Amino acid sequence: MNEPKFPALALHVGGRWIHHASGGERAVIDPSDESPLGMLPLAGLEEIRAAAESAERGFRAWRRVLAHERYLIIRRAAQLMRDRAPGIARVLTLEQGKPLPEATREVMLSADIVDFQAEEGKRLYGRTVPPRVAGVLSQTVLRQPVGPVAAFTPWNFPANLPARKLGSALAAGCSVVIKPAEETPATCMLLVQCFLDAGVPPDALNMVCGDPAEVSATLIAHEAIRKVSITGSVAVGKLLGRQCAERVKRFTGELGGHAPVIVCEDADLPFALKASLAAKYRNAGQVCAAPIRFHVHRKHYAAWAEQFTQGAQALRLGPGLDPATQMGPLAHERRAEEMARFVADASDHGARVLCGGRRAARRGYFFEPTVIAEAPATSMVQRVEPFGPIAVIEPFDTLDDAITQANALPYALGAYAFTRDLRNAHRLAEEIDAGMVGINHFGVSQPELPFGGWKESGIGQEMGAEGLLHYTEIKTVVVGG
User: Fold this and answer.
1) I need a labelling partner for 266 at 20 to 30 A (CA). Which of 8, 53, 182, 351 fits?
2) Do the Cβ atoms of 432 and 457 come closer than 8 Å?
3) What's the burial of 51, exposed, middle or buried (CB within 10 Å: 0-12/13-18/19+)?
4) How far is the C-alpha of 314 from the C-alpha of 32, rounded, in Å?
5) Which residues of 296-318 are buried (b: 16+ CB within 10 A; e: fewer)?
């Protein structure tokens, strides 16, 4: 019997899957052809509050599970993700649009993230401090789970971003209410099922979708929720951060970026070009740490502009399930409209559009790979993250100039540079303001490494040992004799 094209959508609340909720429903759309994939039930206040109450019950049970037992359960979940990767990746491509090989890599990397956090959960070490006064037998600093977590994830990485939050929170002993994007709920639903099938108590993991403002405000205000983690835009992160601050709740925000790339005079130009094209147009540019502003030494600028443009024009657009596709559609209609506004604004400011700049003449939310040259600093694309397949290139004369331009914005998530000079490499690593800096490499997001930004790009980190610590509280215990 053939499997359905797309799973029946449901929310997980109070230990059960529900296919109808009080908030109504909305269609989930295939961005490659604009056809409906399924109907998503939307949580109203009733289900949102029930999810928070369920998480409180789940926390009481899950925190009592020994760390080693939690580790075994979460490791089983990671293995189930690997076992089910072909099906999960296909669903991810259908609802998000990225090419199937990208979706498959995302699911497998998500399993690695969960695996790493499971391991780290066994190493939430405290410390013993020698007493300074007589009569004290011990002084201990402990790390304990912070409590029920509200986690909010966007649509650009429907497996990877939930995996970061679920893996870390559950490994620390927290329960979770996760709200994936309403555009891409099915991938998260399949991940939640992996955790439940692995043995996570049903109350310890709830999933809701609904009106984003209502869901976030209701969960943050609920007394059961003690920690909030969001991956999203700077504007939404600031809003949720303020709501958490008013209630003195722990907050982690992985927000937007506007990543610079410095191509030095001594760079290996063919290598830098090949790597930059792949990184720029991966997931149609819908990556928070994607390269956007390419600062190229004037010696190489003309060659870079010509060859980068040729590479962008050569990319094959198409549905993610087509093996020939190199770049899929944007995730939804709003992104395509926004790309057109970025291009129009840049043109109005005197920039040159070297290629692309238009919506592709086909059904679906496709936008041509776009290269813009010499956009003034006042143009929107130089100030606001485009979050799409738009690259901006401009020349520089000295490394001082390039570093100044790279650090000019209030965003500092990812940054990259290409050089064969060891002194330049160390200087760039030291002087570029960013939470993550890649020298001759774009792979700054790995399960073992902390992921997070400076300035307005966020607060806190995800992944790595550091990411797990954000789901814990510190307790000092002094025992007298």
Assistant:
1) 351
2) no
3) buried
4) 19
5) bbebbbeebbebbbebbeebebb
The predicted structure's pLDDT at residue 390 = 98
Closest CA to 75 of 117, 108, 104: 117
In angstroms, rounded to a whole number, what is the distance separating the alpha carbons of residues 241 and 255? 11
Give the span between the Cα atoms of 444 and 456, in whole angstroms.
19
Instruction: Return all residues near 348 (Cβ < 8 A) that are at least 6 apart.
Output: none
Q: For the domain covering 11-255+457-480, report its CATH number.
A: 3.40.605.10
Residues of the chain with pLDDT under 50: 1-2
| pLDDT for position 67 | 96
Q: Are 327 and 369 in contact (CB under 8 A)?
A: yes
Question: Catalytic residue among 188, 244, 288, 355, which?
Answer: 288
| Tokens, residue 321 | 């399930």
Nearest CA to 327 out of 338, 339, 319 is that of 319
250-254 and 259-263 as β-strands: parallel, antiparallel, unpaired? unpaired
Q: Which tens digit of pLDDT belongs to each residue from 226-276? A: 999 999 999 999 999 999 999 999 999 999 999 999 999 999 999 999 999
The yes-or-no answer on residue 355 being catalytic is no
Q: CA 353 to CA 308: how far, in whole Å?
A: 13
Which residue out of 254, 368, 385, 394 is catalytically annotated?
Answer: 254
284 vs 135: CA distance, rounded Å: 64
Residues 6+ apart with CB under 8 A from 8: 19, 38
Using DSSP's 3-state secondary structure scheme, residue 89 falls into helix
Rounded distance between C-alpha atoms, residue 168 and residue 151, angstroms: 11
Q: Does residue 288 carry a catalytic annotation?
A: yes
- In tens, the pLDDT along 97-146 reads 999 999 999 999 999 999 999 999 999 999 999 999 999 999 999 999 99
CA distances from 59 to 8, 48, 63, 219, 334 (A): 28, 17, 6, 15, 38
Listed residue (41, 241, 16) closest to 150, CA to CA: 241
* CA–CA separation, 253 and 154 (whole Å): 12
- Report yes or no: 258 and 361 within 8 Å, Cβ to Cβ: no
Q: Which residue has the tokens 């070490």?
A: 125
| Amino acid symbol at 33 | D
What is the pTM assigned to this prediction? 0.96
Cα distance between residue 349 and residue 128, in whole Å: 61
Residue 46: CA count within 13 A, CB half-sphere = 7
User: What is the per-residue pLDDT for 481?
Assistant: 86
Q: What angle do CA 308, 314, 316 make, to 5 degrees?
A: 130
Domain residue ranges of the chain, discontinuous segments joined by +: 11-255+457-480, 259-446
- DSSP H stretches of helix in 135-233: 160-172, 185-198, 212-221
What was the pLDDT predicted at 1? 35
Enter the tokens of residue 99: 């090419």
